[in-house]
Amino acid sequence: MPSTNPVRPNHVRRPTYPLAHAARQKPRRVPLVLRFANGAVHSIIVVPVSLHSLFTLLIVYLDRHVTGSVGLPSTIIPSLSIVVGLMLVFRNSTSYDRFWTGRNCLTTIGTSVRNLARTFLVSARSKNGENLGEVERRDTEKIVRVLVAILYAIKHNLRAEFNIPPASLANEIPHPPSYSRSRPQSRRASFEGLGEEGGIHTAKAEYISLLPDGLMGYEDQGLGLPLQLAVLVEGYIRRGFERGWFHGPQASQMTVQVNSLTDAYGRMETIRSTPIPVAHLIHQKQVLALFTCVLPFAIVDDYGWWAIPIVAIVAFTLYGIEGIGEQLEDPFGYDKNDIKMDGIIEDTRQELMVLLEEWKATANGTALGGMFE
Fold first, then answer.
1. Which terminal residue of the chain, N or C, has fewer Cβ atoms less than 10 Å from its own Cβ?
2. Where are its TM segments located (predicted)?
3. Judgement on whether residues 268 and 281 belong to the same structural domain of the protein
4. What's this model's pTM, rounded to 2 decimal places?
5. Taking the CA of residue 126 as centre, how many other CA atoms within 13 Å lie in the half-sphere pointing to its CB?
């Protein structure tokens, strides 16, 4: 009897626009157990695993053909393995805590940006029912774009990508760049001549439509762009209060959102700028190497030539765990195992841009059943 279930058994849901960039885009075609790239740590551990395998080969050869027995009592292994296990557990748990904290901080920042943009767009209304003036509309549109720009500024600062021209170089630019959204390439071309000699990267295209016209940075003087943009947001809250858009408690709550955003970014900076103590890293590397070098002596008499693959497997396991901790230690880069900051920020940008366009249509009287009516 044919099935009446309308759902196709082989149907795979395509990601809708919310979370479209942050979500995984395609199913895994290769089982994870067979994957040796795209997220695996094999490239990090191939050298130590190979060296320990060759060292074991030398020990087995000496034991079998040159010096006679070079084996050690196997009881030495349990005492060393306890120390190695404890150190690896500490390293990985600490690294994953940094990864998870960084992800939660990014969520806090995204939530604060969403809340502020939503409140700004809903509250930017004239009390007497008339349309907003041109100045107020431009001010509100600018500040929503600044909120989105804060996300990109945080991302690039955490990656040490400073891509807004500093004010100290304004006089070195023959023609000050336009931040106009109608000519997105003009600003990039204006700063390509500066190169990276002063630590300045070519302006990112994603900033062109977001930053206010003529905004100059102070990163060369120690002021991060996220804090600079947060000052603009705080100024808008003050202007909105003076215009009567926000009452006192509401303005105070929005200031709390700005403070939460700044606090979360500060914690991300702490993760980025505070590595694992070098004493721990040195001792961990030495203990791990010592254990893997002692292991061949403890098993050579019992396993003979089979000691080589056994040591290789043990080295693969232990150095792989250590390599995972090394990747998770700084989760804000471009590695496969890092936080998907690019996709998460793109999704937030898409949401806020849709809200902004709907608000603009409502403010201009062209919306048909819009959410801001």
1. N
2. 36-62, 68-90
3. no
4. 0.80
5. 13
| 52 neighbors 317 (Cβ within 8 angstroms) | no
Rg of the chain on CA atoms, in Å: 28
What gap in Å lies between CA 197 and CA 194, rounded to an integer? 7
Per-residue model confidence as pLDDT tens digits over 307-333: 999 999 999 999 999 999 988 899 998
Between the alpha carbon of residue 205 and those of residues 159, 170, 188, 189, the distances in Å are 17, 20, 7, 11
Query: How far is the CA of 203 from the CAs of 167, 183, 190, 230, 268, in angstroms?
Result: 14, 14, 9, 20, 23
- Confirm if 338 and 331 have CB atoms less than 8 A apart: yes
> 353: which 2 tokens?
């841009």
Q: Mean pLDDT in each 10-residue stretch from start to end of the chain (373 residues)?
A: 47 61 68 74 89 93 82 83 90 93 95 94 76 84 93 91 67 44 36 40 62 83 90 93 89 94 95 90 91 91 90 94 90 89 91 89 61 63
In the chain, alpha helices (H): 42-61, 76-123, 134-158, 184-192, 205-208, 225-243, 248-273, 278-303, 307-328, 341-363
Kindly tell me the burial class for residue 279, based on how many C-beta atoms sit within 10 Å of its own C-beta (0-12, 13-18, 19 or more). Answer: exposed
Tokens of 91: 């390293």
Q: How many domains does the chain have?
A: 2
Examine the domain organization and report whether 58 and 195 are in the same domain: no
Do 181 and 47 reside in the same domain of the chain? no
Closest CA to 356 of 187, 146, 151: 146
Q: Are residues 128 and 246 in the same domain?
A: yes
End-to-end Cα, the chain, rounded Å: 52
Only one residue has tokens 């296990």, namely 85
In a domain, 371, yes or no: no
Same domain, 133 and 248: yes
Contacts of 113 (CB under 8 A, 6+ apart): 147, 148, 150, 151, 261, 348, 352
Q: Which two tokens stand for residue 352?
A: 């806020």
264-292 residue pLDDT tens = 999 999 999 998 889 988 999 999 999 99
